[in-house]
Design goal:
The complex is a heterodimer of chains A (111) and B (116).
Chain A (H helix, E strand, L loop, with lengths): L3 E4 L2 E5 L4 E7 L6 E7 L6 E7 L4 E4 L2 E6 L4 E6 L8 E7 L7 E2 L3 E6 L1
Parallel strand pairs in A: 2-11
Antiparallel strand pairs in A: 1-3, 3-8, 4-5, 4-9, 6-7, 7-8, 9-10, 9-11
Chain B lengths: L3 E4 L2 E4 L4 E8 L5 E7 L6 E7 L2 E5 L6 E7 L2 E7 L7 E8 L11 E2 L3 E5 L1
Parallel strand pairs in B: 2-11
Antiparallel strand pairs in B: 1-3, 3-8, 4-5, 4-9, 5-6, 7-8, 9-10, 9-11
Classes of the chains: A mainly beta (111), B mainly beta (116).
Amino acid sequence: GENVEQHPSTLSVQEGDSAVIKCTYSDSASNYFPWYKQELGKRPQLIIDIRSNVGEKKDQRIAVTLNKTAKHFSLHITETQPEDSAVYFCAAGGLGQNFVFGPGTRLSVLP
Amino acid sequence: DTEVTQTPKHLVMGMTNKKSLKCEQHMGHRAMYWYKQKAKKPPELMFVYSYEKLSINESVPSRFSPECPNSSLLNLHLHALQPEDSALYLCASSQVQGGNSNYGYTFGSGTRLTVV
């Protein structure tokens, strides 16, 4: 089955700096890679996703890159703000498969 | 309506109680999921319903019993739980089972369950 690893487990950055979170997956059949943000006590919310036929996707300050050959994908947040502080989960899956989540990264943006 | 609604938001129950968690969506999604999330951990899949049929039961103890009365509703019946079952229980739905762009999961706000 699919196995997703995520690094780092915790990340502290100064406000305005960039943050990068990396994930690797094991199942070459996975073709959909979402990222979820979960604030304390709240639900996971989809912030960006990418399909395997795309190498990069950007939405304002958030971008995701995918290297299908190496089976890794990364979340990039630029110009970080205190409200970006949360736990971020990557996941891998595909049509007919269920998501497997990474263990999460706790991001702290320091003012 | 683009939400998944879960009730109750909080639940405290004794180990001999029977209670139910409820989940509802009106997005026409045909796959619904129950996840369990412990503090500082990712969501852990418990059950998947696809077209109102139980698709996956991830070896969950029988004290958890899912039910899908129709395509919009999902219940989780709880009986004789243990304190270690205390967690955030999340419901999610997607247009079809699994994930793909345009078919991502929508999570409910969850029920925070405490077993005493």
